[in-house]
Amino acid sequence: MSNPIPEKFSDLMEKKVFASLATLMPDGTPQVTPVWIDFDGENLLVNTAVGRQKDRNLQRDPKVSVMLIDPENPYRYLEVRGKVVERTLDGADDHINKMAKKYMGQDVYPYRQPNEVRVLYKVKPEKTSSMG
Amino acid sequence: MSNPIPEKFSDLMEKKVFASLATLMPDGTPQVTPVWIDFDGENLLVNTAVGRQKDRNLQRDPKVSVMLIDPENPYRYLEVRGKVVERTLDGADDHINKMAKKYMGQDVYPYRQPNEVRVLYKVKPEKTSSMG
Prior knowledge:
The structure is a homodimer of 132-residue chains.
Chain A: E1 18-24, E2 30-36, E3 38-39, E4 44-49, H1 53-60, E5 63-70, E6 73-88, H2 92-104, E7 118-131
Antiparallel strand pairs in A: 1-2, 1-5, 3-4, 4-7, 5-6, 6-7
């Protein structure tokens, strides 16, 4: 296991970046939404709710791209293309709280809807491109 | 011709938003890069340089997504999915200067490389989704 993220851009994994996650619709059209982003040293972690468009897309087709713009310099960015290697409900609740801490400074994710089930995706990076 | 952009989000077309443009690689993997964005009342306009990955992708497959996060509120965004309806070199130089004015306050695009040829894409919106 080696870190697939270029050292020069590893800071973007720590910053409060609203990443752009691209998935694929049933007809192959890309779909892009902002996501909170996490990195475990090997895979990118994306947390969403069961049943959302991105969840349906990712179950159908594992090919994704995640693009992170440096909040301090919009001309500096990292794109990571790869594939979903795991989808799990285990630990997804703890993980969304971890993300709420990172992005909002709150111990518990405050936007939870009634009956919402969180799901955690692990994306294995295959290719990166960058600028800046 | 009717404006396909929801009135509530039309301000995002005027702001200095670094949009996330998703195109498709030859194997169907999405590719995402930040772009300056323009809107002519009917189509989204994206300006790039001939030969770049996104130019090659867009010539092969017209399906795209453009996602704009409000610079003043990262939890407010608009996604526009659609298709390329025109690729032209005509007016692309003037247009990149217009974008330099919008984003940098400069009359002439300052990042031009030797031998760079600008190309202008027009994307017809087919579907929008949003939050906030």
